[in-house]
Amino acid sequence: xxxxxxxxxxxxxxxxxxxxxxxxxxxxxxxxxxxxxxxxxxxxxxxxxxxxxxxxxxxxxxxxxxxxxxxxxxxxxxxxxxxxxxxxxxxxxxxxxxxxxxxxxxxxxxxxxxxxxxxxxxxxxxxxxxxxx
Length: 133
What we know:
133 residues, 65% helix, disordered C terminus, mainly alpha
């Protein structure tokens, strides 16, 4: 049976996305940790958590969530997680995994838009965020 995402969980995901856009990763993490069951949005939730930890400087924590996102997300979207993992692996001193992640992720900035019932998630890669600011 496929689980349904509650409106409360959707609001928390959208809030976390907004906090990341405003460069407030700690608040994004707080919102994402309160999501009880993201159901089919668990991949994007993990991606958001990974991005938030990466932007707060906790690459080791980001790796855990970004690896999960890469496993959960459909093939074309996995590249987003892999591209973010490359920088995290380099940050923790694992050049071999960073090179592999760069190969799997490709180069360039990513943006993932997910249409929800009453809102939209608009998740941007770290590279595209720096271009905006």
